[in-house]
Every structure is written in C-alpha cells, then in structure tokens.
Design brief:
The chain crosses the membrane at residues 20-40, 46-65, 86-110, 116-139, 151-172, 192-218. Helix 3 (42-71) runs antiparallel to helix 5 and helix 6 packs antiparallel against helix 7. The protein contains 9 helices and no strands. It has helices at 2-15, 19-38, 42-71, 73-79, 82-106, 115-138, 147-163, 180-189, 197-217. The longest helix is centred in the first third of the chain and has 30 residues, at 42-71.
Length: 224
C-alpha cells in the first residue's frame, strides 16, 4: 500500500511538467529522421540513441528528485516508510525506462523480423536508461544538504560513463566504471546488436548496485 502511494506520486512528478515527454519525443523524432537528414547507418543511429536514452533518464530522474524535494515533504512525513519510498524509486526508474526504451527502439526504424536483434536492442536501451537513473539516484543529495557534492558526482560519473572504454589509462579499472562507453565501443568495432547482450546484463547489474548503494547511503540513522 505504501509503495503504491509513493509510486503513484513519483509517476505524477515524472509527467507533470512535460519535460520527460518532450525529451522523449525529440529522441523519437531523431530516430525517425536521422537516416535521411544525417545520412548515417542504423548502427551509428542506434549508438546515438543509446547516448540519448542515457541522458534522457539521467535528466528526467534528476528532475524527479528536484520536484520530489519540493513537493513530497508532507507525503513522506505522513507515510513515513523509507524502504517503501526506496522501492518506489527503483520501480519508477524501471517502469519509465521500459516505456522510453521500447518506444525509442520501435520508432527508430531499426525494428525488424530478427527477434534476437529486436529484443537485445530494446533491452540495451532500457539498460542504459536504467544506468542514467541509477546515477541520478546515487547523487540525489544535490537536491539536499550537499548540493555541490551531488553535482560534481553526477559530472564525474557521466564523464566516466562516456570515456571509460576510450581512455587507455582507465583500462585497468574498466570493470568499476559505468559500461556505457563499453557498449558504444563494442558496437562500433563489430556492428552487430545481439552481441551486446552480455554487456547489457552488466549494465543492468551496475545500475542495480548503484541503487543498492544509494539506498544504504540515504538510509536514516534512526529507522522508524
């Protein structure tokens, strides 16, 4: 019951100012028109859609926590369940990214009769979106007492996500870095979407670990 209350509130916050829907629509339009306007192939377009999905979820989740910090103080005092709140944040990230990842891929004109390609294509978009949401969740403190720390943390993680597999100095710690760049580099070296399945699983796992870490970091010292 408490989870449902928080989940409903978060979904309303996601859609209330049309920011998320506007960005999603812009990415869908890009997917529909990129072939003709930019003259790029499907793999390059898909790579750009992956990056777009990552930033869409990152900014949408940051906007969610910004609105949450302003509008949900009374609700959280009334319901007073940290773990229900945390689970709701995880579920809304999952729901929103499944929604956006599926729509982006379907309208990207990459969809075909290859079930494996379509499935992995959608799952990878969902995974990178989930990664963006998890980073925003880990550093949601930017809307609290430690705003500078949260902002710097987001910037650092975004930089590592985009450059982890590109900068040779980071090769030794690549397994610790957000795997977005690994997906892009792998796709460019061998343009075959189904090969991304193992990295997609790694990306989901990475995002899940960030959610777990954030739930422990922000847990109140005195649980009611």
């Amino acid at each position: 019951m408490k989870v449902r209350i928080f989940l409903k509130s978060y979904l309303q916050l996601i859609f209330q100012d049309f920011w998320y829907l506007t960005m999603l629509f812009a990415i869908i339009v890009f997917g529909l028109t990129a072939d003709h306007l930019l003259g790029i192939d499907s793999i390059k377009k898909y790579s750009l859609l992956l990056i777009g999905s990552f930033f869409l979820s990152l900014f949408a989740t940051m906007n969610l926590y910004h609105n949450d910090s302003r509008q949900n103080k009374y609700l959280k005092q009334k319901v007073a369940s940290y773990w229900a709140d945390t689970l709701s944040q995880f579920l809304v990230a999952l729901i929103v990214n499944i929604f956006s990842g599926s729509l982006i891929f379907i309208f990207s004109l990459i969809l075909n009769r290859n079930i494996l390609l379509d499935t992995v294509g959608i799952l990878t978009l969902i995974a990178v979106g989930f990664l963006g949401s998890s980073i925003a969740t880990l550093f949601k403190t930017q809307w609290g007492r430690h705003s500078s720390l949260g902002q710097v943390g987001v910037l650092v993680f975004v930089y590592l996500a985009l450059s982890g597999s590109v900068i040779s100095l980071l090769d030794y710690v690549e397994w610790l870095l957000p795997p977005l760049s690994k997906i892009i580099v792998t796709l460019q070296s061998k343009p075959f979407i189904p090969q991304l399945l193992p990295i997609t699983g790694q990306t989901f796992l990475y995002g899940l670990v960030l959610f777990i870490i954030s739930s422990l970091i922000y847990r109140p010292k005195k649980m009611h």
